[in-house]
Amino acid sequence: MAANLDTIVDRETAGLEPFVAGYRPLPGIFDEMMDGDGRVRAHWRPFLGMLAALGADEINRRFAAADRYLRGSGVFYRVYEDAAGIERPWPLSHVPLIIEPAEWCELEAGLIERAALLEAVLADAYGPSLLSRDGRLPAALIAGNPEFLRPLVGVAPPGGSHLRFYAVDIGRGADGRWWVLGDRAQAPSGAGYAIENRLALSRAIPDIYRSTRVERVAAFFQAFQAELAALSRQDDAHICLLTPGPMSETYFEHAYLARYLGFLLVEGEDLSVRDDGVFVRTVSGLQRTEVLLRRVDADFADPLELNAASRLGAPGLLQAVRDGKIVIVNALGAGLVEARAMLAFLPALAPIVLGTDLAIPNVATWWLGRADMREKMIDRLDTMVIARAFESHVDGHSAGEVLGAKLDDAQRQTLIRSIRDRGVDYVAQEAVTLSSMPVWRDGRLQPLPFTLRLFLAKVGDRWQVMPGGFVRIADNADARAVSLQRGAATADAWVLARGPVAETTLLPAPERILVQRATGLLPSRAADNLFWVGRYVERAEAALRLVRAMMNRVAEIDETTAPLIAALGSLLQAWNAVPSETDGTAAAFIARAALTDVDLSGSLPSLAGAARSAASVIRDRFSPDAWRAINDLATIIAMPLAFGPAESAIIERVEAALRIIASLSGLAQENMTRLAGWRFLELGRRIERAIITGRLVRCFALPGAPEGGLEVLLELADSQITYRQRYVMVAARAPVIDLVILDPNNPRSVAFQLDRIEAHLSALPGRSAAGRLSPVQQIAASIATRLRTVDAAAIDEALLIDTEQALMRLSDAVSAAYLTNNERSETAWGALA
Questions:
Q1: Most buried residue, 234, 266, 421, 618, by most Cβ within 10 Å?
Q2: No. of H helices and E strands in the chain?
Q3: What is the mean pLDDT of residues 706-711?
Q4: pLDDT single digits (tens) 485-510
Q5: Which of 222-226, 659-663, 664-668 is predicted least confidently?
Q6: Residue 551 and residue 565: Cα distance in Å, rounded?
Q7: Residue 347 scores a pLDDT above 50
Q8: For 129-281, where are the alpha helices, taking DSSP H only?
Q9: Cα–Cα distances in Å, from 212 out to 115, 209, 233, 317?
Q10: Dist CA 421 CA 425 (whole Å)
Q11: What is the maximal distance between C-alpha atoms in the chain?
């Protein structure tokens, strides 16, 4: 058997030497793949041999496939340093970090030991405070930490543990030993991205992945999922993932983890804290939750007792914790142990708390709260890193971190004064030289430094470590810290198994997927944003059609077209799409203003931006194609127009935007399942289209309308072809009004919109006794009945105004019954005087 295995390894590693010939780690740096003598380490050889056998072209093709998978899945991260918080494609480095089984066992044991220590520190800090009383942990280190939450002192966390999901950043020193660089206990990120890295890479090189015998990570998440489920006491309670929202740099991960684990993704405004518990506002009413996996920093969790300016949490959440109504993972206040200053004391606390030294030490750290320590570290400043004592790490990097050797004289003196004035806020740390690992660049392997984030979950009374991790790779060879915000890449971590690997996955096998036709609860906030996406897009389409109708008549301005242009311009002014002082006959100027003015609520940049903003809050509910269409609409409208009249450029811009809206409408009709989310998107579109069509009829079809108004109305309502097929002759008032108001077969008519509105409302959860129409349905039915019983010739301004006001009441009733955001005003779009 041994001879056969040697033969397999020899075959896999044939041709390996030329493949790694140009790989040159920096002197004095530990490299994961290559030892100090220039030999490839044994546990890397099978993987590299199979990779080399593919050839450079096939490697590039496979890695490009991984990138396409990530783009197709919509994986991104947000860069805060860009002014607009730009979303960037996920920067996957395709060569994994490979960890041998024996080394993994040592890491696993050391990290479990550290997690137990941090849990004990938290329990003491919020309990008897024996460590501070005995002088083991300075009281200033606890009381001065902004993550220490006094309202929770003496409150045992429901479920008994402060920490249930813990992450730790580690790096390897030049001697080959692993060191802890920082602890993540507040709301650890990266686990969801680690799953996506694994999926992308395993799909790109499935043969290599299977042959390498990599430990699966799904069992870890299965155990964590089951643990949180066990914390719920009532069968009808939902587990929720609390996110700060789409502006968070890791929002994609929040949405992905919620789907992967089967949790409900919620924001603070989705939650309602009541005497009998915590509930989620949904379109089906209040739904109980007893477990929150939080990704919101503790200070923002409750504006009543913590940060009063926060809009990310839920008022009363701390009281719910005290009452034992909700389990929050991790417990509020757990971020206390993330402080760098804590690293200075953990090594000494371990023998007292655990009875043994830490198996994996943390980077040497000195807290500068003591005068003698301050002066000692000032003398050694050139060899130290000075950092904030309590500032949380952000993506592995802190803006308050400085390397003493790189300071000029003025900077050095300023820092020394700050340390002497307020040393309690600073720590000194040894400068860390990170080990390197291979990345595939320019058709070859190159060494770059990295850090590794590992994850632990509390399962019952023990800790379980995810067999893998989240690797961050620096973008230059001499980096000391690694940050995705500064251009770093990320990679998967493969832990090699000792034997065959069980095929465990949370993604069900095709033959085991149960048939279901529901997608779970729809939070009211999500429904609200879908509703307004529909309305904003419909408003944008109407404004674009007005601009196009105006520009179509610019070439032949005469005594007939001039009043029509003026009427179109007045309508845009009434809708707050152009400044009110604009000359109503200056068609090109009005069109340009509608397309470019960002300060008016009814202008196209504002409408398209509002649609994109509302959609971004619920991005996980749109397909990649639908999201791209919404984003493309805002992008194309925001593009600068050539200076001057440039009628052709305006027309081209309008036509391009209308095509995007048409594609978005097609995607909604053909690609979205007919569930509650789609119905709210449709309700928004239908209510808005009915209101707009009524306004257009008032402007262009009633007595006093300009000559040619009926033709304009048919154009704006996209109904010319139908009218010509029916009547052939010139436009007449009653037939035109019948077509655009009363015809139930015309997709642009008010009657058609009401038919669809009634159908959608009947499919939503009712709010009244069985067998009766809900209050919302009653409003819709009254509008529809009135229009069904009126003759086109009898339609006048009073009836149209009554219908418009009834539609606005319908919109308010939908919001009151199902939605959450009542700040979006009906009057913001403007109305005809």
A1: 266
A2: 29, 20
A3: 92
A4: 454 789 999 999 987 776 665 554 44
A5: 664-668
A6: 9
A7: yes
A8: 130-133, 139-143, 191-204, 206-212, 218-231, 251-261
A9: 30, 5, 42, 47
A10: 10
A11: 98
The alpha carbons of the chain give a radius of gyration, in whole angstroms, of 32
pLDDT at residue 830 above 60? no
Decide if 523 contacts 285 (C-beta within 8 A): no
Mean pLDDT of 123-152: 94
Residue 707 amino acid letter:
E
For 830, the token pair is: 């403007």
Helices (H), 618-719: 624-638, 647-671, 676-700, 709-716
Do the beta carbons of residue 393 and residue 343 sit within 8 Å?
A: no
Whether 656 shows a pLDDT value over 80: the answer reads: yes
Residue 670's pLDDT is what?
Answer: 83
Structure tokens at 512: 């085991």
Contacts 24+ apart (CB under 8 A), 99-105: 99/43, 99/493, 99/494, 99/495, 99/496, 100/43, 100/496, 101/495, 101/496, 101/497, 101/498, 104/215, 104/467, 104/495, 104/496
Distance (Å, whole) CA 396 – CA 141: 22
Q: Report how far Cα 779 is from the mean position of its chain's Cα atoms.
A: 37
Q: What is the DSSP string of 660-687?
A: HHHHHHHHHHHHS-SSHHHHHHHHHHHH
The winner for highest mean pLDDT among 301-315, 581-595, 761-775 is 301-315
CB 579 within 8 A of CB 597: yes
| CB neighbour list of residue 507: distance below 8 Å, 6 or more residues apart | 218
Q: How far is CA 68 from the centre of its chain?
A: 19
**How many angstroms separate the first and last alpha carbons of the chain?**
90
Residues in CB range of 438: below 8 A, 6 or more apart: 23, 32, 33, 95, 445, 446, 447
**Whole-prediction pTM value?**
0.82
With a CB cutoff of 8 Å and minimum separation 6, the contacts of 439 are: 93, 95, 445, 446, 447, 448, 473, 489, 491
Residue whose C-alpha is closest to residue 683's, from 773, 775, 759: 759
Give the position of tokens 């009254």: 782
- Look at residue 316 in the predicted model and tell me its pLDDT: 95
Half-sphere exposure of 525 (CA within 13 A, CB side): 18
Helix (H, G, I), strand (E, B) or coil at 190: coil
Report the 10 Å Cβ neighbour count for 61: 12
Strand residue runs (E) in 408-506: 426-430, 436-441, 444-459, 462-465, 470-473, 489-495
CA distance 272 to 278: 6
Indicate the pLDDT class of residue 515, thresholds 50, 70 and 90: very low
Total Cβ atoms within 10 A of residue 284: 14
For 532-570, the pLDDT digits (tens) are 999 999 999 999 999 999 988 876 766 778 889 989 999
The β-bridge partners of 446 are: 439
Closest CA to 342 of 600, 140, 637: 140
What are 9's two structure tokens? 């390894």
Closest to 466 in 3D by CA, of 115, 702, 50: 115
3-state secondary structure of 438: strand
